[in-house]
Amino acid sequence: LATHIWVAITRARKLKSEEQTTLSLPVDCRGRLVPPLPKSYFGNAIHLIHMTTTVGELLNNSNIITTVNLLHENIEAAQRDERIRSKIEEWMENPNLTSVQGIANHILIGSSPRFPVYVSDFGFGPPMCVRSGRGNKYDGKVT
């Protein structure tokens, strides 16, 4: 599905075939570390994976299965304990706040269907609605 969305948005943007396009996906690392983080862990436990290719390669129908397989392999690798730990070590050596907003021809697909936002109660009862706000919207953001 992510590859289909990436292709559809890229096609709709009518980019030149030699331009680059990037797809980013957040990966939840909570249960993938060895040992896994406790269920009560409250901190950040995600990292982004990125795939970049040319528009021409992405839109070439004979490459769609190749792109799906590469994305799948990238996601699988990103969920392994050693990859997660290496990303943490990289960040410790060179801490930065990643911003994908404003990257040309970029698509970020993110959602949190397992995050129980309507169960949270901070003393006022459960929320009536949850919105991410305008600051979390930009061209290429898919939720």
Automatic annotation (TrEMBL):
Keywords: Transferase. One of its GO terms (molecular function) is transferase activity. This is Uncharacterized protein. Coiled coil: none annotated. Gene3D superfamilies: Chloramphenicol acetyltransferase-like domain. Pfam families: Transferase. One of its GO terms (biological process) is paclitaxel biosynthetic process.
